Amino acid sequence: MVQATPKITLSSARDIPFNKLVLSQDNVRKIKAGVSIEELAEDIAHRGLLTSLNVRPEVDAEGRETGIYRIPAGGRRYRALERLVSQKRLAKTAGVPCIVSSSETP
Q1: Quick one: which of 62, 42, 61, 53 has its CA closest to 20?
Q2: Which CATH number, 3.90.1530.30, 3.40.50.150, 3.60.110.10, 3.40.50.300, labels domain 21-100?
Q3: Fewer CB in 10 Å around end: N or C, the chain?
Q4: What is the model's pLDDT at position 3?
């Protein structure tokens, strides 16, 4: 008997307001690499955010989501967006495309 292969479900991005995002202490990149934050900010300003941020919902002591999302992957993109917000070129409530992962660590 042939077993059916389970279908893969990809996470779709959803827009989360910039002011609901915070950089996680678990951010994976520990060294600077590639273009500067300033150059990345300019690239985002001209071409948009090409890769969504990966985020996890923050939960309180009872396990309820707080409405804040932590960024374990995408710290450089977050810092570039933060620069654009500080320059008032991006609204602090602008929607940022994010892939929301489980709040539990694997």
Answers
A1: 53
A2: 3.90.1530.30
A3: N
A4: 77
